[in-house]
Write a sequence for this structure.
């Protein structure tokens, strides 16, 4: 069969969402940030809320997210996205407001803003892309860096005695009464992408109900920072990140749905 | 028996040759080309086009959103 008999408008089953601009993404080849951007915009497109959604970009590799997502966006000082989103949401309670943050942004310099926005139960969505490292600045250790994981500031691997423990922000904020939906997903495989998209849909549903905060962690690769090829970094992520940051829902409809005690160990 | 035939179209100049689509293709359709695009990346293409079922796996994982997918039922 000739390929041109298949490549016809009536046979189209997938094309890039129109809510991503035509700009070439500034991310490294194979970086999960790109997949995460596309998914959020696909959901906004499917819900038909392009004109009613406001995003807050962080400091980090995704600092330019506003160049790529074709919605109203602003960009916050490092770690302050949840505070900026709080202000926007309180001024425009009927808009959908989300932050998009890396782990250096959300779990280091922005820890206070993250925890208090979650605890206040702001009716916003937080998208948390956790690649266990400061990607933008050259792969320094982050609070989320795994035990033994090499980074430019832990070249012999993270040593717990001198550098402390990696932090599970998602399990922590799930315990706050202000969060309604808390989940951890990934975007490196098609099956994960489909699950993450459902999770993003659910997060926007929660935002619509205005009952509190929805928090979607996406465990991702930073193949440049980890110094691996994109494909190898995704295998490394499955073998090393997922055991410590297990995927799945943590809190649904305001109720914790997994055993946090065993998980916090 | 009805069978699904698919095809992908890669926006060659936007592809970064990361290979994530290649390992996500369940039918081993996709390969990375020997040639490079304008940015020097070995872009992805249908190495074995007859294998493609149009499942969309490659397109939904592509970080740069460069793959368009078509599918047709053939008797
Ligand atoms: C107030 C302030 N402190 C430090 C920096 C330097 N800085 C830029 S990005 C970054 C870390 C970003 O890491 P992460 O949030 O994990 O995002 P990624 O780049 O990995 O996606 C840091 C420390 C800054 N821009 N502003
Ligand atoms: S440095 Fe890491 S997080 Fe940043 S774009 Fe590259 S792979 Fe992605
Ligand atoms: S996943 Fe996308 S950017 Fe990466 S090689 Fe495939 S088509 Fe190119």
């Amino acid at each position: 069969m000739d390929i041109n008999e298949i490549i016809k408008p009536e046979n189209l089953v997938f094309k890039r969402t129109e809510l991503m601009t035509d700009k070439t993404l500034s991310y490294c080849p194979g970086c999960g940030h790109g997949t995460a951007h596309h998914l959020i915009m696909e959901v906004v497109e499917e819900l038909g809320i392009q004109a009613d959604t406001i995003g807050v970009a962080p400091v980090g590799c995704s600092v330019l997210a506003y160049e790529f997502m074709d919605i109203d966006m602003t960009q916050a000082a490092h770690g302050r996205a949840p505070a900026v989103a709080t202000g926007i949401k309180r001024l425009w309670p009927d808009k959908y407001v989300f932050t998009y943050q890396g782990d250096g942004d959300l779990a280091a310099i922005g820890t206070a803003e993250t925890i208090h926005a979650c605890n206040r139960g702001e009716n916003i969505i937080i998208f948390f892309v956790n690649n266990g490292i400061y990607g933008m600045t050259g792969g320094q250790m982050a609070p989320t860096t795994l035990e033994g994981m090499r980074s430019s500031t832990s070249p012999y691997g993270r040593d717990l005695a001198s550098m402390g423990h990696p932090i599970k922000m998602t399990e922590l904020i799930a315990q706050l009464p202000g969060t309604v939906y808390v989940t951890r997903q990934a975007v490196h495989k098609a099956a994960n992408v489909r699950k993450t998209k459902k999770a993003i849909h659910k997060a926007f549903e929660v935002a619509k109900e205005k009952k509190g905060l929805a928090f979607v962690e996406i465990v991702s690769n930073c193949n440049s920072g980890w110094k691996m090829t994109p494909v190898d970094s995704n295998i490394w992520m499955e073998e090393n990140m997922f055991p410590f940051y297990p995927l799945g829902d943590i809190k649904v409809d305001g109720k914790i749905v997994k055993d946090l005690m065993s998980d916090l160990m | 028996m009805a069978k699904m035939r698919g095809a992908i179209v890669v926006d060659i100049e936007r592809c970064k040759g990361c290979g994530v689509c290649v390992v996500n293709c369940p039918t081993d359709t996709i390969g990375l080309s020997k040639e490079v695009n304008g940015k020097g990346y070995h872009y992805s293409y249908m190495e074995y086009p007859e294998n493609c079922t149009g499942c969309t796996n490659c397109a939904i994982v592509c970080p740069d959103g460069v793959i368009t997918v078509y599918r047709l039922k053939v008797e």
